[in-house]
Structure to design on (825 residues):
């Protein structure tokens, strides 16, 4: 057996365990911080020579149901998503808690306290609590790895879906772990078939009542089992009884780190099973301390389930912040305050506040995320802004192109697919109010397939009139280039996919105007936008769909390599900064004396798209023969 | 000895590669390692920061004011993250003209050791601007305060660099040589 120590990402540890634990089907929809889980399953199934079917499903609800069918058949299955994806999968989740499962079923929902890459910092554990699904809450990649095995065992023992809830800091933590190459055993060849059971798998409301009772009984049993589970432990059991800490997840280790820093020893009840709460364990812990503070994130879940609140401090009484990540600094300051109140002496924070204030006052450059040099989204947004101006409403969506808000070409952001329903809503509202205002929505290829189709049908059907720009960059770029249903590739990299056409889908939704064009062709693209708007306003018109087809430069740099268009900025540049603000390419930078704009050749990809961004004509092709040619052909009236 | 190291820069400057290089070197020393990386939206040109803990507590993040060493692939990110360091901590920065002069009094007060190299220029001369992070790694190995020796880090580069393998080793050596020369000149 090969054994070596390597750095393992939290998400890789989960992926490895899913393969080792004989999952037969693993599905998911990409979303930071969960995206590397499914990719790791693909990596490790090859390493360990296992048969695991994986797919990037079109959305989280679909992913959940596909994996659920495997668990109903009787084999192990898992589904991964980020916390807001769980909202999309909430419908089957609530139902599956009642019906239960036969084979082990793990739902991995990654939370994002902060938030760093999400529209909310909601707590998946609270969704699980509402759905009555048990949750395991790991603190390290190694714990997550172990909890996959525990989760499958519990799932099979109780016939319940089990949620594993990592957070961003765990998903993207690398831990040194000893890896053993556990090669395939014989058990994968087991003969299993779906067995019909109408009172369960197709239960009507009458049976659902019984299933609900059964679920409640399982949870009571589970809470008892968790009381003695190795996933829950008391650290520093013999220390001071003045204050105790109840903590879970990454925040539990952050609390222990603060104790180390303070050189203070208090008992810590570290809970790996926040729901159902092992109430007896918590009660016994509370009995031995004078006061306990609950450290968990992002929301109160453990704390919410503690019925006797006399001794308990946490988020509910304002002792612990209720928004934002529990950083080491925040946990240190919270504990410091609680300990001081309890009469324990604590040292000052190691942070030098004078230095922090000094650095904060320096004029350091703000580094906001921006679209990459050469990104086709930028060209599309620039053309939209130039064609429709600031008076139009630009509903936006979730993906790299959310950054269109920097270019003021994204005015609204709700959730996946909302750009289309919001555009429809703005149109209908304006109609009611008698306002006339162009509405131009943008959505990415993957997001359109995820949840853009029902709102498009809805808009076409009810006679809405707006322009929808589908930004097709041929991949799910923000989360690491996962294939979409419009690709030739499947999740495991094979090319067996049946490709779905975005244009055909849009037409099938009823859109009469569907034109596919390249946003790099500035003039043509702008003309198509104008025609699309005219269509949307014409007597026979409705929703007009423009598919902006340009591959992501990071995912597929070939087209750009084949047709580079290097530029220079002429001597005449007067440093007006219009291009910096309206085009915002990282490769266009202010010169050190701030008198003009220069090209940063270290990041420039020679796309030549900025030529149009200088309305004064000071950004020109480097090759002079191209210059006259392109300038005469491409120059557009501003 | 337990060590806390911050590695910072902006998206696309190889902060993650540099972090993993140092972490692999620590593993080669048989130490337990915990790293926290930045993924997602920030990788599109935002500020990027990694935390690397060698031994000690397993929480992924280092508390502000307790880091021993700060690696920065860009000068202003080095300055932005100075508060991460404990008193007497060390900075290895890719900075063409050193850190901005305003910070000198604070650097003195906090007793920081600041070591800068124009790694960008060396990388550019090697024909791969993106390799400045490896130049910086080599530079750090030339100082006594570095937890990783030349041989150990070089061997780790040799093992982990997949693309432009020979150039990576060249970049590493160039950074190291620059650091050694600097130290001879400064006596």
């Amino acid at each position: 057996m090969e054994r070596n120590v390597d750095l393992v990402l939290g998400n890789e540890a989960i992926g490895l365990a899913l393969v080792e634990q004989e999952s037969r089907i693993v599905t998911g929809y990409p979303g930071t911080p969960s995206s590397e889980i499914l990719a790791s399953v693909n990596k490790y199934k090859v390493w360990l020579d296992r048969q695991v079917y994986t797919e990037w499903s079109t959305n989280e609800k679909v992913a959940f149901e596909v994996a659920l069918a495997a668990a109903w058949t009787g084999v192990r299955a898992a589904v991964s998503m980020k916390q807001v994806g769980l909202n999309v999968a909430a419908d089957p989740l609530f139902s599956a808690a009642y019906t239960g499962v036969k084979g082990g079923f793990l739902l991995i929902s990654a939370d994002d306290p902060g938030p760093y890459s999400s529209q909310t910092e909601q707590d998946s554990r609270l969704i699980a609590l509402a759905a009555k699904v048990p949750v395991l809450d790991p603190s390290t990649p190694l714990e997550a790895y172990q909890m996959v095995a525990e989760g499958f065992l519990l799932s099979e023992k109780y016939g319940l879906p089990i949620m594993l809830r990592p957070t961003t800091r765990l998903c993207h933590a690398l831990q040194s772990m000893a890896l053993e190459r556990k090669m395939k055993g014989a058990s994968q060849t087991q003969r299993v078939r779906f067995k019909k059971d109408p009172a369960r798998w197709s239960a009507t409301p009458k049976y659902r009542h019984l299933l609900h009772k059964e679920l409640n009984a399982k949870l009571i049993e589970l809470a008892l089992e968790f009381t003695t589970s190795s996933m829950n432990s008391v650290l520093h059991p013999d220390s001071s009884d003045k204050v105790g800490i109840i903590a879970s997840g990454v925040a539990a280790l952050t609390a222990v780190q603060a104790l180390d820093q303070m050189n203070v020893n208090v008992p810590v009840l570290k809970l790996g099973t926040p729901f159902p709460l092992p109430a007896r364990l918590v009660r016994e812990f509370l009995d031995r301390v004078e006061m306990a503070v609950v450290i968990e994130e992002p929301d109160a879940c453990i704390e919410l389930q503690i019925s006797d609140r006399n001794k308990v401090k946490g988020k509910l009484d304002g002792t612990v912040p209720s928004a934002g990540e529990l950083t080491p600094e925040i946990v240190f300051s919270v504990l410091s305050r609680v300990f001081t109140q309890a009469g324990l002496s604590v040292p000052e924070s190691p942070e030098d506040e004078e230095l922090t204030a000094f650095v904060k006052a320096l004029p350091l450059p703000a580094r906001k995320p921006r679209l990459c040099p050469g990104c086709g989204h930028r060209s599309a947004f620039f053309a939209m802004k130039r064609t429709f101006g600031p008076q139009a409403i630009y509903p936006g969506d979730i993906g790299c192109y959310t950054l269109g808000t920097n270019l003021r070409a994204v005015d609204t952001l709700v959730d996946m697919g909302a750009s289309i329903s919001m555009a429809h809503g703005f149109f209908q509202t304006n109609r009611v109010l008698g306002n006339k205002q162009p509405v131009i929505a943008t959505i990415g290829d993957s997001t359109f397939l995820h949840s853009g189709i029902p709102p498009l049908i809805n808009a076409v059907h009810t006679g809405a009139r707006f322009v929808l720009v589908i930004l097709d960059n041929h991949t799910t770029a923000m989360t690491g280039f996962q294939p979409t249903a419009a690709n030739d590739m499947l999740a495991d990299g094979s090319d067996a996919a049946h490709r779905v056409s975005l244009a055909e889908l849009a037409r099938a939704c009823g859109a009469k105007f569907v034109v596919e064009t390249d946003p790099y062709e500035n003039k043509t693209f702008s003309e198509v936008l104008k025609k699309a708007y005219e269509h949307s306003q014409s007597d026979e018109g409705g929703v007009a769909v423009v598919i902006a087809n340009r591959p992501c430069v990071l995912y597929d740099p070939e087209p750009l390599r084949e047709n580079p268009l290097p530029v220079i900025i002429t001597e005449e540049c007067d440093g007006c900064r219009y291009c910096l603000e309206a085009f915002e390419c990282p490769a266009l930078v202010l010169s050190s004396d701030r008198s003009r704009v220069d090209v940063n050749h270290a990041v420039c990809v020679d796309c030549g798209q900025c030529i149009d961004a200088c309305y004064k004509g000071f950004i020109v092709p480097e090759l002079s023969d191209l210059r006259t040619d392109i300038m005469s052909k491409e120059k557009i009236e501003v | 000895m337990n060590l806390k190291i911050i590695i910072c820069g902006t998206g696309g400057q190889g902060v993650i590669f540099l972090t993993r290089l140092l972490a692999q070197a620590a593993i080669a020393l048989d130490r337990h390692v915990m790293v926290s990386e930045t993924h997602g939206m920030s990788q599109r040109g935002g500020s990027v920061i990694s935390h690397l803990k060698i031994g000690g507590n397993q929480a992924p993040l280092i508390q502000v004011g307790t880091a021993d060493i700060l690696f920065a692939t860009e000068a202003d990110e080095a300055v932005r993250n100075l508060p991460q360091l404990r008193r007497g901590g060390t900075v290895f920065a890719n900075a063409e003209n050193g850190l901005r002069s305003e910070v000198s009094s604070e650097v003195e007060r906090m007793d920081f050791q600041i070591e800068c190299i124009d790694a960008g220029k060396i990388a550019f001369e090697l024909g791969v601007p993106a390799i400045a992070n490896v130049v910086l790694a080599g530079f750090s190995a030339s100082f006594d305060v570095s937890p990783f020796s030349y041989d150990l880090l070089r061997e780790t580069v040799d093992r982990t660099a997949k693309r432009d393998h020979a150039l990576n080793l060249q970049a590493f050596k160039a950074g190291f040589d620059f650091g050694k020369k600097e130290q001879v000149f400064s006596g």
